[in-house]
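Batch 3, record 17
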Amino acid sequence: MDAMSGAASAGAAVKADAYGIGARVAVPVLRDAGCRDFFVTYAHEAADLIGLVPPRSISLLHGPINDGVARWARETGVRVVINSLEQAARWLEAGGGTCDLMVDTGINRLGLPLAQLGDPLIGRLEIDILMSHLASADEDVSLNARQCARWQEARNLVPHRRSSLANSAGIALGQDYHGDLTRPGLALYGGVPRSIFEGRIAQVARPMAAVMQVRDIEAGEGVGYNATFIAPSPMRVGVVALGYADGFLRCWSGGKGGLLWKGRRLPVLGRVSMDMVDVDLAGAQDLREGDWLELDYSLPEAALSSGLSQYELLTLLGDRFAR
Ligand SMILES: *Cc1c(COP(=O)(O)O)cnc(C)c1O
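Prediction for the assembled complex:
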């Protein structure tokens, strides 16, 4: 990501436990690879990273959402992103100091509209990163260029040290979108938001689950809740310690999902339960209780077959998976 960011440096979005990968695992790896800017959403996510990276290198995307967070950020040195005039006032009230500023250039989420950038409160901020966020960087649409132009305009209006616009997909939009710092998330964790990344992004998450029991069932027997699968003939099935509470959602029920064993795909039988799912062992006669299966987590393909986004597939991985 850093190489693809040209003259800009790549920071890292590590919010939501580094997209489910485990922030305490991912952040030291990113740090050792040279990453110096980390973005989380909430203060408790930042608190989790103190000791792994300098507090100054962590920025809270939701900003000083209340006086407590503003004070805490001042005390620890964690950076805040100012998203509104209210947050600017709160930050200055708490004592101020270096912060980042989010400008809304067309996504209509958090961030100040360009029209508010002349407000005297903004003039009193000491801004490190002047940032904005792209709505459709994974598509070729005119909104990208419009947002880029507004962000350039904001750069001319507000004094700042560094500027930042691109997320993972935005990095592929070229130099005009890079500024001083890019903020990839998804692509760091194996997501492929644009075809240009194909072959350059390796799979990162390889969730695994163990076969707890092997059962032989008769023709006519049902499998799982509501017996949505009925064995057409005698079958050998595996009961796997994996369920929707782990993020293996019910959309994988009934053969839509499969678990991998020695490169072979074992189809899901019946419904996914909270803690268990059955798979067909017809293709795995030599499998034994205690063997481990891998979820099919090549993200672009898994997203297509599940209807979930690559982001969802990562962030829904439950905390019962050891990282
Ligand atoms: C989540 C987020 C990112 C990272 O986006 P990806 O699409 O995962 O690369 C960057 N910037 C902001 C403000 C974000 O909220």
